[in-house]
Design goal:
This protein has 231 residues and is mainly α. It contains eleven helices and no strands.
C-alpha cells in the first residue's frame, strides 16, 4: 500500500504555490492551518502539507523570526493544532468504520483495496496502538492509518487513547519545535532548506518500506523459481 501511495505523491518542486506552508499562512491565516491539519488527518487529503506546515507555523509565531506573522501565543497554537489533529483522525476512523469495507472492496479503487485492509490488520495486530502514534510522523500513512483502523474494526477506546497521545505529541511538538528554532539565524536564513529536510526525513520511512517490500517480492520470486525448477 505504501508503494502505491508514494507513487501518487507529486514531486515537491512541482507542487503549486497554494501548497507552500508560508503561502498558506500569509494568504489565508492561522485558521487555514487548522483546516489543513484536520483535512490531511481525516479527509484523505494526502497531498496537503503536514510536518512542514506545523514547523513553519511555529517559526512564523516567533517574534524574533524575520517571517513573523502569527500573533497568537504559542500555547494557543499548540492547543488548537492538537485538537484539529485529534478530531481529524476521529473523522477518519468513523469514515473507515462506516464505509471502509465497501471502499476497500471496490474493484476500481486505486488506493483502497481488500489486500491493503488485510495487510493493515496484520500490522495493527503486530504493533497495536503504536501504529496510530507512529503514523503521525509519516506523510500519507498519517492520513491512511485512522481510516484503516476504523475499517479493520479496531477497538475505539484504544484508538482514541493513542490518537490523543499522537495528536498532542505531533501537533504541539512540531509546532513548538518551529517556534523554538524560529529565532535562530541559521534556521531563518535557510528556512526553505530546512523545510525540504523535514519533508525528506518524514518520507524516509516510506522509502525504506518501499525498498524492503521490493526486496521481499524479489526474494519470493526467486524462491518460486527454485521451487518450479525442483518440480
Amino acid at each position: 500500500m505504501l508503494a502505491t501511495l508514494m507513487a501518487a505523491l507529486p514531486p515537491l518542486a512541482l507542487m503549486p504555490e497554494w501548497l507552500d506552508p508560508e503561502y498558506i499562512v500569509r494568504r489565508f491565516g492561522f485558521l487555514a492551518v487548522l483546516a489543513v491539519v484536520f483535512a490531511e488527518c481525516g479527509l484523505l487529503a494526502f497531498f496537503l502539507p503536514g510536518d512542514s506546515l506545523l514547523f513553519t507555523t511555529g517559526v512564523m509565531a516567533n517574534p524574533d523570526s524575520p517571517i513573523y506573522l502569527i500573533e497568537q501565543p504559542i500555547w494557543l497554537l499548540c492547543l488548537t493544532i492538537s485538537i484539529a489533529a485529534v478530531l481529524g483522525d476521529q473523522v477518519g476512523f468513523l469514515i473507515g468504520r462506516k464505509a471502509g469495507p465497501a471502499l476497500f472492496s471496490r474493484p476500481d479503487s486505486r488506493f483502497l483495496k481488500q489486500d491493503h485492509l488485510a495487510r493493515a490488520e496484520r500490522f495493527f495486530e503486530r504493533y497495536g496502538g503504536r501504529t496510530i502514534f507512529l503514523a503521525r510522523f509519516v506523510p500519507v500513512v498519517r492520513t491512511a492509518a485512522p481510516l484503516v483502523a476504523g475499517a479493520s474494526g479496531w477497538n475505539y477506546t484504544d484508538f482514541l487513547r493513542w490518537n490523543v497521545f499522537g495528536g498532542i505529541v505531533w501537533g504541539a511538538g512540531v509546532t513548538a519545535l518551529g517556534y523554538a528554532l524560529g529565532g535562530v539565524d541559521f534556521i531563518n536564513n535557510n528556512i526553505e532548506a530546512i523545510l525540504l529536510l523535514i519533508v525528506a526525513v518524514s518520507v524516509l520511512p516510506i522509502v525504506v518500506e518501499v525498498l524492503m517490500a521490493r526486496r521481499r517480492e524479489a526474494r519470493a520470486a526467486r524462491e518460486r523459481g527454485v521451487v518450479t525448477a525442483d518440480d
